[in-house]
Specification:
Elements (H helix, E strand, L loop, with lengths): L7 H6 L11 E10 L3 H12 L4 E4 L15 E2 L7 H21 L1 H11 L11 E5 L2 H15 L5 E4 L1 H8 L6 E5 L3 E2 L2 H14 L3 E3 L6 E5 L2 E6 L2 E10 L17 E12 L2 H4 L8 E4 L5 E5 L4 E7 L6 H16 L10 E9 L6 E6 L2 E5 L6 H15 L20 H18 L4
Parallel strand pairs: 1-2, 1-11, 2-8, 4-13, 11-18
Antiparallel strand pairs: 3-7, 4-6, 5-6, 9-10, 10-11, 12-15, 12-16, 13-14, 14-15, 17-18
Helix pairs in contact: 2-7, 2-10, 4-10, 9-11
The chain binds flavin-adenine dinucleotide.
Flavin-adenine dinucleotide binds next to helix 2, strand 16 and helix 10.
Length: 425
């Protein structure tokens, strides 16, 4: 069993990581970017494509945060249904947000093609699976709302869902043809290599520990260097371990783990997600199911796999595979890992302007591959002289969430209890 509980399978199967120096000495640039996940990398890539100078500083390694740990579902749109998005942000931003994020897989798969990024990319759609009658009803609503907007989605009845998933556990499933899957860490490495190719400068092991306003812009301090810049993009999401903790106060920490089997025999693989869609269910404590390129079944759900929680969640995964995909039989698990999702209380991402020259778009609520890539591009355009109105989110203040750590603990404890008791009979 691989005990790399942070990046697990993705680190084991990603291509070579980009070799980057750490920042040393004094540097100057046009736009400083803090954080080497999808948002920061996409911003660096697109600034370079526009002929703008930028320097990206990553605290650890590229993809250290959510980008190197996630499920790899390249979803179209947010978790929320389109009509809920409209209610929450209003029609001025809402329809644009729905349209831009609905098309975000186009940007992701377009960049993968343009730069030849090797990341197990597949665009066969995703399956949102109903694990109850009420889940099925909600999917019907979701289908209606997307069809109204011309999206290629289709609700599958129970029998067809069983064929597409390889499981009789679901009441139906919503197939979304816009979406697909990637090896998430490999996609982050690919974006980094594309940004370097376009002339961006990227540094690893360069945590920004201080951030000060100076007469002609901003000064960022790392353990061995300084960077001055006219403007700054802060793209640290839920991984603000070195600085920017005050910007995290409007997020609720929410962990999600995954376990992967060894590659499954060809005969069994033909029966599980045979078209290789990535899948997840409608349960409040949701589960995800996907295969990787080598044919490993990867099952995920809410919680962290630190300490004794490992056994609770690992045993739950084994029981889940037995009940949901009985054709697999008893199987060992080769990898287990988890990451922190940046959630907001209303599930809408946030756009903050600390000053007009310091921008943050954060909290993709577990959907960051498409949104991170898109918002990175939009932030690059804004910093290159575009209007803030082109970013389809209202600018909000950082409103601290009351009892945020307690809420996080509540989710964690709830997931452990649920996984401890579920699927025992
Ligand atoms: C377990 C899990 C499953 C998920 N599943 C999916 C999924 O299937 N599909 C999907 O679309 N999204 C998914 N997500 C969400 C997605 O991973 C994130 O939304 C996405 O990674 C956000 O990208 P980002 O670049 O904004 O932030 P991140 O990828 O988190 O990157 C932030 C980076 O900032 C760096 N950093 C922090 N502080 C500093 C500092 N002071 N100085 C320099 N660098 C700093 C961190 O080290 C980190 O590398 C999932 C997330 C998790 C954790």
């Amino acid at each position: 069993m691989g005990k790399n509980i942070t990046h697990g399978l993705w680190e084991a199967t990603a291509p070579a990581r980009p070799q980057l120096d750490s920042l040393q000495g004094a540097h100057k640039t046009d736009v400083a970017i803090i954080g080497g996940g999808y948002t920061g990398l996409s911003a660096a890539l697109h600034l370079s494509k526009m002929g703008r100078e930028s320097i990206l500083l990553e605290a650890e390694d590229i993809g250290y945060g959510g980008a190197g740990r996630n499920v790899g579902l390249v979803n179209a749109g947010l978790w929320l249904m389109p009509e809920d998005v409209l209610q929450l942000v209003g029609s001025e931003y809402g329809e644009k947000l729905i349209r831009i994020l609905g098309a975000s897989p186009d940007l992701v798969f377009g960049l993968i093609k343009e730069y030849g990024i090797e990341c197990e990319a597949l665009r066969n759609g995703t399956l949102h699976c109903a694990d109850s009658k009420s889940g099925y009803k909600a999917l019907r609503q979701r289908e209606e709302q997307w069809l109204k907007r011309g999206a290629p989605v289709r609700l599958l009845e129970r029998e067809e869902a069983a064929v597409k998933t390889g499981s009789t556990s679901f009441f139906g499933a919503l197939l979304d043809k816009r979406a697909g899957t990637v090896q998430p860490l490999a996609y982050a490495y690919g974006l980094a290599k594309a940004a370097l190719k376009e002339g961006a400068k990227l540094y690893n092991h360069s945590p920004v520990t201080e951030f000060d306003k100076i007469s002609d812009g901003w000064r960022l301090t790392t353990p061995r260097g300084t960077l001055t810049a006219k403007s700054v993009i802060i793209a640290v999401q839920g991984y603000a371990e070195y600085a920017f903790k005050e910007y995290q106060k409007n997020l609720v920490p929410f962990n999600f783990f995954q376990f992967a089997t060894p590659p499954l025999p060809e005969k069994i693989l033909k029966t599980i997600l045979p078209e290789r869609q990535g899948a997840w269910d409608t349960n409040l404590i949701l589960s995800s199911y996907r295969l990787d390129a080598a044919g490993r079944l990867i099952v995920g759900s809410v919680g962290m796999v630190d300490g004794f929680a490992w056994d609770i969640h690992e045993n739950w995964v084994k029981r889940t595979i037995e009940k949901t995909f009985p054709q697999v039989g008893e199987t060992p698990l080769d990898y287990g890992w988890y990451g922190r999702i940046a959630m907001t209380t209303n599930h809408i991402p946030r756009f903050h302007l600390i000053e007009p020259s310091v921008a943050i778009v954060t909290s993709y609520n577990g959907r960051g591959i498409g949104p991170g890539t898109v918002f990175g591009k939009l932030l690059a355009e804004y910093m290159a002289g575009g209007s803030q109105k082109d970013i389809p989110l209202p600018v909000t203040k950082i409103d601290p969430v009351g009892f945020r750590n307690l809420r996080g603990l509540f989710y964690e404890a709830g997931a452990r209890l649920y996984h401890f008791v579920q699927r025992r009979i």
